[in-house]
Structures are given as structure tokens and as C-alpha cells.
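Suppose you are handed a protein chain with no further information: no name, no annotation, nothing but its sequence. What can you learn? This example shows the usual starting point.
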Amino acid sequence: MNARSEPGSGAPGRQLGVLLACFADPKGAAKLRRPFAEQLAAGGDAILDSAVFKISKNHKASVHDPRRVLMGTLTPALTWGLFGLLTSGWLGLVIDGLLGALCGWAYTYYFVHHATKAQLTHVGKQLPPASSALLAFAQTSDPRRTLHATAGHTPTVASIAAITADLTARVFVGADGPDEVQHGTVQRVAPAGETALASMIVIRYADLGGARHAVSRLAAGKTKAADVELVIETDDGGKRHVRDPKLGVAAMVPSDIVGWGAFGVLAGAIGGASGGGIFKGAVITGIAWGVFGAFAGALYGLWAGRSISARRLKGIGPLLARGTSVLVAWTDGAASQETIDTLTGQDARSQRLVLRFNPVGRGAAIEVAGDGKAGANNSASEVRT
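A reasonable first move is to predict its three-dimensional structure. Written in C-alpha cells, the prediction is:
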């Protein structure tokens, strides 16, 4: 399957860059993100998504997305404040808004991400203590220039994978003078015997339903082979639809209906005890809060839960061919052939790319573990450590 480019979907030669920069300072990654984004913007490129990893002195890892944290703070501040205004007037707006902002910040910072506890434990053990790393996804016309933009912040290890429209990738390592790493040169990137930190799997299906069917196959499996971060569908008209199966609207609305509804039942019962009847107060208030919870959940899933919007993907349009769907998933360690087979469903028309994040020296670097047609030119050995 060949990707069909879309007129006006991005500048010529524009690619998706996956960048990993590691630092000896636990605050180094967070300090880089803003000036890095500004430097990319000056060259006509942009960050699409990012995540900051922080490793404590005790090898405990945490991760957060600064943009997502901001939206996760503002969304409950707005929804809680609005509900407080409706129920308690202006004083409720201020108090509930501030409380929502505080709770939203804490919840998004610590819990709204795709990394599991086991994955963070694995990352924490492999990376140096008291260190940090920035993982960024950017639209770039020059991957070397994008990687060099991190040099001023002296990363211990920096690498970037530039993904083209045919779903192949070139990897460059070194911030000061980026060198291209050829496929199969694992020893230049990771010492023998080391276990990969994680693997990122990108699969493009030849139809709109391919990615959704893959998510269903994963859900039906006995074990969780991979964590799906994004499903992107591009219809024949070029319109893109982006969803996050774990943190998007479809996931957030049901949980917020239950949470807000349960709290409303409790509040209504307490209020009804002083007059009007406990049962009546609980039911009416519970329903009202549940309805508002659906609105709050949809807004949160749209703004904070989903990391990338369809509009922000315009710059890498050629990668998202019309009439196709794309799935982005993560696995702990090296991706196995069984996981690849589960995601592709043995569809010979699909294409896939596997990037492996290998520990090296004082950080980690990216390596291409396999790309091309799924089930065709990539053997099991190419996607295993």
C-alpha cells in the first residue's frame, strides 16, 4: 500500500519526528520543552505532543505531559466553577473553581498518561537516578536540525526517528553533530544484553476500520499485549478523526457520569434529610449531577484526555493517507511478534513501524526495530531484542 499525499496537508518533505533527549538533571527535560518548541517554531516546525519523564534518586519514574496538565487544570476549573455558580452563586463559582483546578492538576499530573505502573518501574530501574528525559513528537522538515535544537541544553543522550509517508524511518543520534544510525546496527545504540525500555508501534491499515478492529482484538485478548494511545482515521475526503481509547471522550464520559452521579445522590440525600425527603432529594440531585458529569467528562476527554487533535496533525498529512486508519501503541520492553500479529490481524495490506527505546550509557536512544509491510518482509527476529 502506498500512502496517497494530500494537497495542502503539509509542507513538502515534512515528516513526523520522534525525539528522545535525556538529561543528568531531574529538571533538565522540563527546562528544555519551552525553548525547544520556540526554536522549532522559528524554523517552521512544531511540537505535536510531548511527555516529560523524571527519575528520582531512588529510581522511581514519573511522567506527565505539560500541555495536558494545563488543559486538565483548566477543564475542571471551568466545569466545577460553572456548577458551583448554578448551585451556590458567585461564591460557589470561586470556591468550586479553585478546588476543581487543584484536583484537576493533581489528577492529570499523576494519573492521566498511558504509562502503566509496571512500565514506569521498568523505566526507573533502567535509567540513571536523578535524571530526566523529554519524549517529543514534532512535525519536522529537517530531523538533524530538530535534534540539534536540544544541544544548548547539553543532553547526555539525544536521538530522533524521522518517519516518512511510506512509514519507514531514519534515526539520527547526537545533539551536537547528529549521525545517522543504520538499520541493524544495534550495538551502536544499545549494549548487548540490555532490555529495551519500551517499544512504540505504528500501524497503518488499508481501510478506515482496521485500527478499531485491532483495538477490539486487544480488548478480547487474555493478556494486555499493548496499550493503544491513538486511533486516527482519515476518510476519503481527507477529514481526520482522532480518538484515545483509554483517555478520550468515550472513556471519560461513563466514569464521570458515575462519579458525579454518585456524589449527587449523596449530596441530595443529605439535603433531603433536612426537608423534602431523602429518597426524592437523592434521585433528583443524582440525575442532575450525572447529566452535568457527562458534559464535564466529554469536555475533559476532548481537551485533556486526548493528547493530539486532528487539526494539529495537518502538518504530517501525507503520513495519514486518505481511506486509511493509523494506530499508535506502546509495549513494555521489546515488541514481540505475537503482539505485532495481534495488532495487524495478519492483514498483508497494512504497513507498520516499530521503534525501540534502548538504554545506553547515561540515558536511552531510539532504534528502528522493523518497518515495512506487516507479515511480509519483517521476520520475528526484527521485532525482538
